[in-house]
Amino acid sequence: MSEPEDGGFDVDDWARLVPFTGALATLADVRARKAIFALGDTEGGRVLDMPLPQPVIWWSDDGEQAAVAVQAEVHQTDDETMEVLGLILPDGAGAVALLEDVDLVDDTDPEWRRMVAEAVGDETGEED
Known about the structure:
Strand content: 25-35%
Structural class: mainly beta
Helix content: 10-25%
Shape: globular
């Protein structure tokens, strides 16, 4: 089982992660560890209406990773609209991803569960 005090999660306790909802995050929210990101150089930002926390499979540059989305915002730049998610990885690290780079999954998804278990090192009986 992961160590909750470090902010990580496992397949059984991910739902305890506290989402940042109801407002756009500020730098103060990020510093207070209430939010994953704050975007200040965009226009027309708004909260993205979706259920949080939300298990996801993130297609990052390092390959696919299990994560939980805890923050969701829409931001407009001069030439594009970005739907941005704040993610927490099983080890407690934070990451930022575009909604288009994740698959929303249920916590019963076998691939998500496998990736979480491998990331936290439980349920395999193996030591790192």
